[in-house]
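Entry 14. Structure prediction run on the chain below.
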Amino acid sequence: MACAHRARAVVSFVLSEVLEEDVVKNESDDELEGLAALFLEHERKPAVRIRGYVEEVVANLSDDRFKRNFRLSRDTFEWLMESLENCPELIPQNIGKGGRAAVPLEKQLLLSLELLGNQIPFR
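Output returned:
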C-alpha cells in the first residue's frame, strides 16, 4: 500500500510540474492526488503488433504498393538506408550493456516514413 501511495505522490508531483501554473494554482493537493490515482489506474492496452511484418509483408509488397505506403520508391528507400547505415548517431550505444535490443534501422526508417507520409494517428 505504501508503494501505491508513493506512486500517487510522484505522479501528482510530476503533474504539478508539467501542468501550466494557473491550472495547478486552482487544484488542491487532494485533487492532484485524485488525478494521479486515475492516471495510475488507467489500464494500458498492449500495442497491436504483426510479427514478421517487415520481413514478410513489406518485403513482398509490389513496388507500386510500397511507394503508396511509404511515399517513396523501394530504390530510394534502399539508397536512404545505405546513406544512414554508418551514421554514428544511429548506431546503438547500449551494445553489451543489457537492456532491450535496438530496433533495426530498416524498421526505424519504415516506421518513420509511414508516420510522416500518412495521416495515421500516433498513440
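The helical segments are 2-18, 21-25, 29-41, 53-57, 63-70, 74-84, 105-117.
Filed with the rest of this week's runs.
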